[in-house]
Amino acid sequence: MPIxxxxxxxxxxxxxxxxxxxxxxxxMNETVKEVKKLVSGKxxxxxxxxxxxxxxxxxxxxxxxxxxxxxxxxxxxxLVKTIQKISK
Length: 88
Prior knowledge:
Elements: H1 5-40, H2 44-64, H3 69-85
């Protein structure tokens, strides 16, 4: 446990940020999971409809520093590629 006053403040801030980061990470993972589920079910229209939501979740996670910028780009690219592979 921190003893110094500034360390106590830093710990409080860190806990608060941790909650926000967990929330963003969970939102990102859930949307990615939804898209993957739709892709495995061969539902191209629904997967494409979820794309903006998925992009937003991934971009917000990258903005917060939860994932790196290139990781976000790679995730988006791979998911779009899997959606496009579904036959009509």
